[in-house]
Design goal:
- There is one protein chain.
- This protein has one domain (2-78).
- 89% of the residues lie in helices and 0% in strands.
- The protein has helices spanning 2-36, 42-46, 49-78.
- The radius of gyration is 17 Å and the shape is elongated.
């Protein structure tokens, strides 16, 4: 059981990193789709791409960490 306890922080970190990467990718795809539209909105044209990407990364980080914490909590409660 001690070994599983040591792996839990690693699971949280790995899921958080994946969330960070997927969040950045999703926000980049959203920006590309917005700019490729026939009539891009004013908001689309005036948004800061770096800020938008950081926002997506932050959301992905929290989603990944939340998923990892939920999964490890479930594993711990069953074990």
């Amino acid at each position: 059981m001690g070994r599983k306890t040591n792996q839990l922080p690693l699971v949280i970190v790995v899921c958080s990193v994946f969330g960070l990467v997927f969040g950045a990718t999703a926000s980049q795809a959203e920006m590309n789709q917005c700019l490729a539209a026939e009539n891009p909105s004013h908001q689309c044209l005036t948004q800061n791409p770096t800020l938008k990407r950081l926002e997506g990364m932050g959301m992905g980080l929290f989603a990944g960490a939340g998923a990892a914490i939920g999964a490890t909590w479930r594993i711990k409660s069953k074990g």
